[in-house]
Amino acid sequence: MNMSGSTHTILNIAVVGHTNTGKTSLIRTMLRTSEFGKIEDAAGTTRHVEQATISVDGAPVLNLHDTPGLEDAHTLYTHLEQMEAVFKSATPVKILETFIENVSAQDPLEQEAKVIRQVLRSDVLLYVIDVREPFLEKYRIELEILTRSTKPIIPVFNFIAGHNQELAYWREQLAVYNIHATLEFDTVAFTFEAEKRLYQKIQTLAEVHYEKLQHLIDYRAKVWEELCFSGAKRITELIVSVACYRESKKQQQNQAGHLDGEGHMHEYVRKAEQRCLKDLLSIFNFSEKDVAIQNIPVSDGQWQLDIFAPGILKTYGLDVGSAAAKGAAAGAGIDLMVGGLSLGAASALGALAGAGWSTFKRYGDEIRAAVQGETWSCVDDNTLQVLYLRQKNLLEKLIHRGHAACDAMQIEVSEKSRLPDDWPNHISTLRQNPLWRMPSASRNTDEQYQMLESKLIAAILNSEAPIKN
Ligand SMILES: Nc1nc2c(ncn2[C@@H]2O[C@H](COP(=O)(O)OP(=O)(O)OP(=O)(O)O)[C@@H](O)[C@H]2O)c(=O)[nH]1
Ligand SMILES: [Mg+2]
User: Fold this and answer.
1) What is the spatial distance between Cα 334 and Cα 332, in angstroms, rounded to a whole number?
2) pLDDT digits (tens, 9 = 90+) for 324-337
3) Hey, is 279 helix, strand or coil?
4) What is the C-alpha separation between 379 and 273, in angstroms, rounded?
5) Which residues constitute the domain of residue 142?
6) In this structure, which residue's CA is closest to atom 11 in ligand 1?
7) Distance 13 CA to ligand 2 centre (A)
């Protein structure tokens, strides 16, 4: 993205509409940055036309022009009518041109003139509408004026969340103006699908730019898919590293007085989750500001609720009753033998007697543990479930991102969280493979590992499957 550049063969899009409808927000979302312009819940935030360019591989595809909101369409309309009376044979476009040529800097209509000037220089108009507003006279007049420019208009419905009725009403009203190709685009909680439709609409209205726009759509789809995949892979890595973690009870005893065993394990889990959070935010290029916008319960880069806080199970919809009945709050830690280890002490001894070096390497810890009467402790299932659900929930928020608002607001992405099929088996497999805790060539090429990893990634993505073209 660059803020200048030749406008020669580039598609020019003006974002217009009544004041405070989310024009600047829409542009930020399209640019994937919260650095563009100024956003406020007040009229007249944008005072001048501002331009930004969307490029693919360094090649500019389109210019977006943010415009000040139309505040006084009524006065402008009256003015244009008066001009019409004077220049009887002039076309509506000619009248608009004459208007902008003659307006002075002190003119009360100077703000409106800036908008009209940009409209006449652009190929397509995105007309942003706050659907919560009734279709008042002022909007009718705005549309009247804009259609005089003869530029294609794409109405973009904003603030759509929870306003279906109003949306239907707006559609009806616009149909009266022969405008049928409308778009819904919530700039706060948008999806890639909505953005794709926006570009496709523009494609049909600006045929000469078809190829370039297609290139942009394909590029954005690819980036989107890669982002979702990287996010899911990172979460899988967290689950693997925590489920594979184990601590020798002996070690715990030796460290008594320092940090007890549980303390160690808790620290390990906290740090692993912390790193995952940091990575996820950075994969999706989320700043602290974005975190607040999406209402993610994170402060100073840390989860507000500690992973071992009482009540965390309930927060993530886990079965508190049965967990409490078993006396197993998150973070209790479990004895490895209880944790589904297939290799009991007896078979361990058998293995020791008959096994070769490779078996010993693989089961060495357990065998040694069995021989020396040592047991291992590992992270309990409740903790793993909370970890999984919390990151999955985060990923959903990161995926439904916008760069719109400047105040934190409630956008609750539907609660699709559930555990993957086969979860107990996956966890049990991981617990039996402590060496998978860290990425390594041998782990990453292991067929069993690859299978498990791809199943977990697919489960994380299934409700958020990246859109393919
Ligand atoms: N809930 C919700 N709020 C939004 C959405 N889009 C914008 N907003 C909020 O609406 C207010 C106005 O947004 P802006 O982007 O500044 O609107 P604008 O049309 O550029 O305003 P002017 O420049 O003053 O004409 C801000 O408080 C935004 O956070 C949306 O899709 N949903
Ligand atoms: Mg603005």
Assistant:
1) 7
2) 445 455 666 676 65
3) helix
4) 13
5) 11-187
6) 41
7) 15
